[in-house]
Write a structure and sequence with these properties.
five-stranded antiparallel sheet, 7 helices, Alpha-Beta Plaits
Length: 174
């Protein structure tokens, strides 16, 4: 491959690695063409890009953008799932694909921001609830003490109201 072409590929990978929210490295050995196409289709439906990369060029691109820890992950046949939206989405799609199809595809690791992820980190990321669920859990946690305070403050008023109602019924019975 010509040096100019390699330079363009490295620059493209640098832009891709810098521009994506998350990247997950997979070992695609053992997948036949139809399985690989099926995986690409599922990833594309979720808005995730899937690229097979040349290790030496990917290592160079990772080092150039300051992710030298990531460069060590590019060994053997590697394809990268690149997510530009919700961070856990690519992990969820890949783990779900592996689980449902019992595929030989394996997750090698990944990256987001300046953090390099292990395969276990990616699996943990896949188990996270969606962003909306997390936000609702946080809001429920914030509202819980307020509801408790309201119930404590209303308790004496309810007691007085109960006593007054009983007295009214007593006086009506006489």
């Amino acid at each position: 491959m010509a040096t100019e072409k390699k330079t363009k590929i490295v620059e493209g990978l640098q832009e891709t690695f810098s521009g994506c929210n998350i990247g997950i490295l997979t070992d695609y050995r053992g997948l036949n063409t139809s399985e690989l196409n099926d995986l690409r289709r599922k990833l594309r439906e979720a808005g995730i890009e899937y690229k097979v990369v040349k290790n030496s060029l990917a290592q160079l691109a990772a080092r150039n953008i300051g992710k030298s820890e990531l460069a060590d992950s590019f060994t053997g046949p590697v394809a990268v799932a690149l997510g530009y939206g919700d961070i856990p989405e690519p992990a969820k799609v890949l783990v779900d694909y592996i689980r449902t199809t019992k595929s030989v595809l394996s997750i090698k690791g990944g990256f987001f921001s300046d953090k390099v992820l292990s395969a276990r980190d990616v699996d943990t990321l896949a188990k996270l609830p969606s962003r909306e669920v997390l936000i609702s859990q946080v809001l429920a946690g914030m509202q819980s003490p307020i509801y408790g305070l309201v119930n404590v403050l209303v308790g004496p008023i309810r007691g007085i109201m109960g006593v007054l109602q009983a007295r009214i019924q007593q006086l009506e019975g006489v």
